[in-house]
Amino acid sequence: MSELLFDQVKKKLRRLYLRDMAEYLDDALEYAQKNRLGFLEFLNDIADQQINGRKQRALERRLKQADFPRNMTFDNFDFNFQPSLNVEHLKDLMALSFVADTKPLLIFAKTGAGKTHIAAALGRLACQANFKVKFISLQKLLSILYTSLADDTTDEVIAGLCRFDLLIIDDAGNVRSKPEYPSLLLDLVSTCQGNTALILTSAISFEEWSALLGNPPVTHAIIDRLMHQAELINIRKALSYRTQGPEALDLPDLES
Question: What's the whole-model pTM score?
Fold first, then answer.
């Protein structure tokens, strides 16, 4: 192939938004010549390159949209650190059937026990499985919903959140509550039910939620909906990664 024709083909591929094929064309031609590929084999090779490139960019967009904290994955999670963690159950959850079935997953453990890591790592797996995911703290979520009351856009905000396949609500137990919060959270949980899978992490038990949020009747309604068909990870007597883990500082464990 002449250099002029080669450049023309690359330009045409870019005009057709086939960037990966254009960038790979030189290597693809060299590989085809070296391995004496047929025309269809060559076309299949460069088509695979385009498909894989688009998949990778789509994954990167989903990860960016999810807004996960730091690099929390199962590759850097110590499955053996927590003696009370049901590792077999967690590995079953990694198959993500609860996401496909739009069920809640509730993760209870004290601060520093790794519940956020588990939630974020599951969220990353969901992104890799083509699910749309959003990670957000409970305080930030409630603040957004509260702000939406000012311009009467609460329904639109909730609808937008429930368009995700998986909504991860982190750090229940650390909330500066307002009287409107319980009703706003109930509206969100009710709208998500049957439409969007939820992961919720909490440093406190459900028995303490009424004191946290106020309005016990509404709080009990929230708990009732969250518990319906929910999966549960309850790390009892958890160790703290921050104070007892391999990279822990020499600080007292305030959670003890």
Answer: 0.84
